[in-house]
Amino acid sequence: MGYGKYSKKGQPFALVNPSFYPQVLLPPEQIGWLVSQPEHILSHEKANEDIHALPFLAPGFNNYAHLELIRAIRHDLTRNIANTEAAFRDELEHTASEALGHAGDSSWREVNLAETLDTIIFGVCLRIFFGPSLCRDAKYIHLVKTWTRVTGGLMIAVSQLVPWLLKPVVGLVAGLPIYYYWLRMIAFLYPTYKQRIVYLQTSKQCPPEDMVTWMVDLALKCNPGKTPSISALIVRLTLVLESAIRESLRLSPLSDRMLSRRVVQKGGIRLPDGQLLRHGTWIAVAATGIHRDECNYESPNEYRPFRFCSTEEKTGKPKASTPIPATSEKFLAFGHGRHSCPGRWFASYAMKVMIGYILVNYEIEPLDNRPSNSIVGQTIVPPLEVKIRVRRKTETECK
Asked: Annotated binding site, which residues?
């Protein structure tokens, strides 16, 4: 309602969260101004701390002192996507077979969609991030999944649902399980990191191409004196998958608000229209409003899988598609500007290959209607109880 009443008219408006902390949502005309502001005026990192409740759940965590991961994702992971393809494909085949059915077994089975994708995504990402030794370790997988769910759930609850005055107390208690699982994961990871440090410092062996190596390498370069504590069928589907996935992200982004910033300049800041925002104010834009604006997209509430495809005039076949990771002032699923999601290129690659592999190798019985999402605070949560029927195709059907 606020987007149609104010943003469409070029006016900002304030929205109070369940935590009783207001957030100012800017109109689309001010997006360019918003993303151009430097960190010392409008802080992306401080807004991330607010959104993830880090000062309350993890008071000792310094967001600025742990940027090796962001650098490794933005540079090494993106640059080495081609080098990870063999490992990615191997783990995808393994996890998909375990979750959806092995080759030769063409019987129909009913699976929980969220749990199945969870298994496949965790398996593949753990292989790329930590290598083969940990990605199939049942104890480590359990720890990572549990830590991810506990941390994600508590971040949403404390940042968006707990009243501001109660956050310090609730966060202190709620953060205990986060630290517990974090320490247990560190115990698993320590030998792996120690091994990679030796590899990179001695140069006697070639370390595996994974995120552990890239993060350690970056840390060694930043602190040289310190020891840091698919197949052709899938390619044919690429254009259609690019557009279909991008369209899904348009209709169902991770959050209904994007480009979050916190005013950190003393004395506040004036918006382009002259309004003054005080120091500490949260700022964002209404992503779902922009994504469903008829001025930006024809029939914006309709899912059109080929919306982002251009087609051949004679044949009508797709010839090009807007890349999934491409951001703009009209497409904010990955943010926009210099603080866009650093892992969006890998995420795009992973989604295309996973979905392409499943479509090539499995038959899926379609649902009559798409179940609705839920909204918790500003987080858009997909339906978690949906079950689908799926079967492994025969070798002849896959060709």
From this structure: 341
**Could you tell me if 2 and 25 are in contact, meaning their C-beta atoms sit under 8 angstroms apart?**
yes
- The answer to whether the CB of 311 falls within 8 A of the CB of 290 is no
Task: Calculate helix-pair angle for 176-202, 211-222, nearest 10 degrees.
Answer: 70
Tokens of 98: 């375990």
Each residue's pLDDT tens digit, 304-328: 988 998 766 555 566 677 889 999 9
Q: What is the pTM of this model?
A: 0.81
Q: Which residue has the tokens 């209404």?
A: 286
| Cβ partners under 8 Å of residue 289, min gap 6 | 2, 3, 4, 7
Helices (H), 206-343: 211-222, 232-236, 238-251, 287-291
Residues within the annotated binding site for heme?
Answer: 341
Burial of 190 (0-12, 13-18, 19+ CB in 10 A): exposed
What does the pLDDT read at residue 304?
92
> Which region holds residue 26: left if phi is over 0, alpha if psi is between -120 and 50, else beta?
beta
Alpha-carbon gap, residue 181 to 194, rounded angstroms: 20
Alpha carbon 386 to chain centroid, angstroms: 21
Q: Is the pLDDT of residue 281 over 70?
A: yes
Cβ-based burial of 71 (10 A; exposed 0-12, middle 13-18, buried ≥19) = middle
DSSP state of 102: -
Length of the chain, please? Answer: 399
DSSP state of 240: H
Give, to the nearest 10 degrees, the angle between helix 167-174 and helix 138-160: 170
Pairing of strands 22-26, 282-286: parallel
Distance in angstroms (rounded) separating the CA atoms of residues 396 and 355: 20
pLDDT tens-place string over residues 66-88:
666 666 677 777 777 777 888 88
354: pLDDT strictly greater than 60: yes
Six token digits for residue 175: 């953060």
Q: Which amino acid is at 385?
A: E
Q: What gap in Å lies between CA 150 and CA 351, rounded to an integer?
A: 24
Phi, psi values for residue 103, rounded to 5°: -60, 135
249 or 70, greater pLDDT: 249
pLDDT value, residue 397: 65
* Residues ≥6 apart with Cβ < 8 Å to 48: 54, 63, 260
User: Three-state DSSP class for 13?
Assistant: strand
Residue pair 382/252 in contact by the 8 Å Cβ criterion: yes
Residues 6+ apart with CB under 8 A from 292: 251, 300, 301
